[in-house]
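Page 47, continued from p. 46.
Same chain as before, 324 aa.
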Amino acid sequence: MAKLNMSEATVAAIREEMRRDEAVFFTGFGATWYGGILGGAKGLWEEFGDARVIEMPMTETGYFGICAGAAMHGLRPIFDIGFAEYIPYITQPLCADMAAAYYETAGKARVPIVVAAKQGVCGNLSHPRGFTSWLVHVPGLKVVTASTPRDAKGLWKAAIRDDNPVVIIEPLGLYLGEPQEIPDEDYLVPIGRADIKRRGRDLSVIAAGEMVQRALGAAEVLSGEGIEAEVVDLRTLAPLDLDTVLDSVARTGRALIVHADWKIGGYGAEIAASIAELGDGRLKTRVRRLAPPHVPPPYAPELEAAFFPAADDIALLARNMLDG
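Result:
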């Protein structure tokens, strides 16, 4: 087993899939000699050359259309748009056309394209804006995000092999974080399946991406106070694994949803509504959500860091839920 951070695990997944399938190619800003943003394509150009690792011009909408056409003709493009705040440039072809192609053609047309986009706070590369909740709203579009290097590699490989569009939201705050032992053998993390990252009895904290790690930090603090929080890592935001979420909430009786998109209209609202609609009625208190305020992300580093929920915020709200 090798110890890899999320960036390295991502490159390992892409490299293995490019070796396995010659139809896979990678394109993005700085994809060639620069090695991708934060090393997300390091070494790929040197191994696979200009034909399969392509420098993307700064014309996202048009170039995405080219890649989508390539996907419909048998290739498997990986389209690294760089940062999630650029996703609006490609929403028309991605959401209106590509996501619906399989359904509208009764399965005759498939669009095996992966869109990768980084989001969050990471020093001078901060790009906190995200539009994940827009994407989750679109039928036919799969949206995934990892909280660990191991999950990142498995989700990437599953996304590349999928026959329809998958968007991978990469958390900037974890991308160059702590390495983790990664199995040498080939493995996939199934799209559409959540994971319990920590077992607990008192409340369920439901999160994804970097918020999972912050939830785990909060759970560690709460454990010292006699409160055992269960942390549910969604891993896939669409299609959502509601069975795992509902099972967890049924055990603990409390649900706290934490996410990095704005609270108003965020995907946490869908989870909260589903718990209310489909849960078994054993809730001990109302469902709570914790997410960024409904303001444009600030530029000052201190304010930008405070924009996202922190572990202390999660722990404080969890205590309140148990008290009230």
